Amino acid sequence: MSVQDRFNPQSTDIFVASSPKTGTTWLKALTFAILTRSRLSGSTTSSLLAKMPHDCVPFLEFQLSDQNPKEEEGGGVQKIISMCSFEELSSLEVNKNAEHRTPGISSPIQNSVFFRKGEIGDWANHLTPEMGARLDDIMEKKLKGSGLKLPR
User: Fold this and answer.
1) Alpha-carbon gap, residue 140 to 149, rounded angstroms
2) Which superkingdom, per the lineage (predicted)?
3) Distance (Å, rounded) from C-alpha 22 to C-alpha 90?
4) SS3 content of the chain, % helix, strand, coil (to 5)
């Protein structure tokens, strides 16, 4: 039975989607930090500082809390921005030297491979032009009729 047949969406579900090599690790870090922001108030500890973003957000099963208008005044937004910066995430010990285990894959992956340079266009150092064009074609087909277009 497929996931589609058994999935029962809830009104509080959040879906995070990205294409390969477009910042999925960073997107997961931001998602986790935003959804757990109420736990950051007055604290400098977050699971994100000790775990890989892929371990913090394997599946999204968060309940959204009400937004607090005083969060920005209290520095909550700045805490999230700082904690999820490329410099901060890529320099954490867990992301430099630990390993990530994916269910169904026998060998672990070094967390450091999820953090490249953080520069626009760096994909060209990891994918051939043909691979990039193929991904662009796939995305164009997936976005067709949505009103969204890929920049070329």
Assistant:
1) 7
2) Eukaryota
3) 16
4) 45, 5, 55
Residue with tokens 């208008």: 69
Strand intervals (E) in the chain: 99-100, 109-110
Q: What is the pLDDT of residue 42?
A: 61
CA–CA gap between residue 34 and residue 28 (Å, rounded): 10
Q: In the chain, count of helices (H) and strands (E)?
A: 7, 2
Spatial CA neighbour of 21 closest among 148, 105, 118: 118
Between 95 and 148, name the one with better pLDDT. Answer: 95
Backbone torsions φ then ψ of 93, nearest 5 degrees: -55, -45
Q: Which residue do the tokens 């700082």 mark?
A: 82
Q: What's the pLDDT tens digit per position in 1-30?
A: 455 566 777 787 777 777 667 778 888 888
